[in-house]
């Protein structure tokens, strides 16, 4: 059974650079590594060559419809999303009953997510929590989040390393809540915008770093997801880890 599920997952039409990180052969929960620049799913009918899977996507059912040889149409359910500029761990599942279980965990904030980010400035304290009231608004396909509103956004941060010459810190960011663009907005509100952020970032600082490194990406990476869940009277623990992309390596001191 384990080999069958793994073979089925590996038959899926991965987008460019996408790779399998981990899977559970019993529940069919699995994690992929999404490169920077790929969409979590297409926004329009048809196949998007710059999306996680090269297959049509059902926006209502939140699943890819993968047509596999000798198998037929296989629904592949997307459990969370990453902005196209963000890389790293993303969760999917083949079993609709398990999907319902995982969705409840997301809604109740019982899934631990850790991101790595290069941010402008040197953090004055090594760890703490950002708390901000935020609101989001949609303009067509575009969503923007800003300060204000009644809902509280919370993110734990932990300093990992810093480059005092460049004025950059490497942090782990652990969101407790789940606003669109939450990490990027809170970083900017606390004077530590994520490097390479073209929407909420420090544009002149981004240009300075681009001249030094030639990298133009958003330096935000979904590094790890941990969750525990029960299904069919059995308990499961699942972890997926994605190492930092090579572009992050230009920072000098990670100690």
Walk me through this protein's architecture.
The protein has 255 residues and is of the alpha+beta class. Strands 1, 2, 3, 4, 5, 6, 7, 8, 9, 10, 11, 12 and 13 form a 13-stranded mixed beta sheet that branches. It is built from four helices and 13 strands. 16% of the residues lie in helices and 40% in strands. The chain folds into two domains: 2-108 and 227-246, no CATH class; 114-215, Pseudouridine synthase.
List keywords for this structure.
alpha+beta; 2 domains; single chain; 255 residues; globular
Entry summary:
Helix content is 16%, strand content 40%. It has 255 residues and is α+β, with helices and mostly antiparallel strands.
